[in-house]
Amino acid sequence: MEMSGTLISPCSKESLVIYQDWFNFADSDGDGRLTGNDAIKFFGMSDLHREDLKQVWAIADAKRQGFLGLQEFITAMQLVSLAQSGHTITQDLLTSEFDWENVKPPSMQDLNKKLAKKKSKIKSESISESMKLQPSRSSNWFTSSRSSKKIQLSSVTSITDGLKTLYNQKLKPLETSYLFNDFVSPLLTNSDFDAKPMVMLLGQYSTGKTTFIKHLLKSSYPGAHIGPEPTTDRFVVVMSGPDERSIPGNTVAVQADMPYNGLTSFGTAFLSKFECSQMPHPLLEHFTLVDTPGVLSGEKQRTQRSYDFLGVTSWFAAKCDLILLLFDPHKLDISDEFKLVISSLRGHDDKIRVVLNKADQVDTQQLMRVYGALMWSLGKVLNTPEVTRVYIGSFNDRPSNEAIDGPIGRELLEKEHNDLMADLKDIPKEACDRRRARAAKIHAYIIGHLKKEMPVMIGKAKTQQRLIDNLEDEFRKVQREFHLPAGDFSNVEHFREVLNGYNFDKFEKLKLQKIQAVDYMLSYDIPELLKSFRNPYN
Question: Which UniProt keywords apply (predicted)?
């Protein structure tokens, strides 16, 4: 199963002129984005069934932005034209061998009349406008260009814009007041919202992480190294770009349009082991991949890395939308370092998927035993009653080992491969997700509680030390008082370590209005935002 970019293909120059004219007509507010309401009015002129139009929108809005730009609009029009010709609208059309340049624009009922009417109206308005006297400069002297009003959700033009607005107005004030960025996760920037979903690959060396990426992209990425020993000795972000190039970590971490500014806190020792690999690829239009150094095992894990490997892994885990843990049938033992890495993913359990790679190296009976052994090993490390989704496959470009696979094994691997591809395509973007909001609320409760426990005058230093020493008990008090789930609390040891650098007396008191604003955002604002940008034909 392949993924394509949004635009199916280039259309002819004549069609492009027509589609541009149609798009300008359909875009009622002229902002370059066709919303669901605009689409319902315009697409209705095609006389297609609602189910067909639902599929057209779903395929054209492949990035799930909640609107169509010009390119997506052209894709939609090509699909409408095919539907009118009797084709069934499915995702498979994207990979079909059509002569797309010769796909004619669809038939749209009464559109030409409406276009002519609009052009006539614009012409008459421009004539009457030119006859009006120019207003004097003095008429603007007493009007203010400043506005104290906050941006309303009704004025946002995409889900991303809406989430930025909500975060800045409601969640960020809570995070800033209670130092969430120092204890849990850095404050979000515009680049975090604009970035594509990220997928991180983790695993011991030689489990096929880099080969997995090469298999997905059907080509190698700039700077990729593959071998039986630990060859990827750095964190590599593989993302979409205009041409093939590698950018050093020191440069990437300070670029305002990239969401990696927070990595500067890990120092130059890490940044020298970090790079960004850019290349034009339709798959990378959907998400960004993060290749990581092989987790060490045996004697090698006693060698100290020059940077905080677990800290960097935790940072990426918080930013990523999906985490793939790779194993192969001959490396099922989980090393001490890999256990620590998996432990550092605590709080992101729902993002974790397991890939049992190189499955064609064992026969079907052995594969069943390997799968059972893997689940047993993971059960001891993940500490969760839920079963993590495991994909079984051989993600490389070598031909399948038919002698080992057999017809049943081959069919299984193909189905698993397709399921993983579908999962990758449907990654939810979670920049301002509910998990972060919950964590910020719990953090505010803890900081507010510690502030409340401090005496007014005497014995402040002694009380602060007692609170730090008995932090686990204080967590339990907060949990009972506000009826919070224990699993959502931060790691006690990490929290204690950070607290040592603060004066509790300077913490802000708990302000319930800020908590209530976040609750309202979660229960009302975000559902309303998603509702307004969903597929208009649902």
Answer: Calcium, Cell membrane, Endosome, Membrane, Metal-binding, Nucleotide-binding
Instruction: Decide which of 475 and 536 is more confident.
Output: 475
Number of Cβ within 10 Å of residue 448's Cβ equals: 21
Cα–Cα distance, 123 to 35 (Å, whole number): 26
Condensed to tens digits (0 to 9), the pLDDT of residues 369-401 reads: 887 877 777 777 776 666 678 888 777 766 666
User: What does the CA dihedral 442, 445, 446, 447 come to, rounded to 10 degrees?
Assistant: 120
pLDDT in tens, 115-159: 888 777 766 655 555 555 444 443 343 333 433 344 455 567 778
Can you read off the two tokens belonging to residue 512?
């319930």
Instruction: List strand residue ranges (DSSP E) for 328-476, in order.
Output: 352-356, 390-392
- Lowest mean pLDDT across 177-181, 412-416, 460-464, 474-478: 412-416
In the sheet with 288-291, reading across from the earlier edge strand, the strands are 245-248, 274-279, 235-240, 288-291, 198-203, 322-327, 352-356, 390-392
Long-range contacts at 41-48 (CB < 8 A, ≥ 24 apart): 42/108, 43/76, 43/80, 45/108, 45/109, 45/110, 45/111, 46/80, 46/83, 46/84, 46/106, 46/107, 46/108, 46/109, 47/109, 48/80, 48/83, 48/84
| Exposure class string for 92-120: b at 16+ Cβ within 10 A, else e | ebbeeeeebeebebbebeebeeeeeeeee
* pLDDT over 50 (residue 83): yes
Choice between 411 and 54, residue whose per-residue pLDDT is larger: 54
Distances (CA, A) of 174 to 341, 365, 437: 30, 54, 9
Contacts 24+ apart (CB under 8 A), 519-524: 519/441, 520/170, 521/166, 521/170, 521/171, 521/437, 522/434, 522/437
Cα(163)–Cα(168) distance, integer angstroms: 8
* Sign of the alpha-carbon dihedral angle for 443, 444, 447, 453: negative
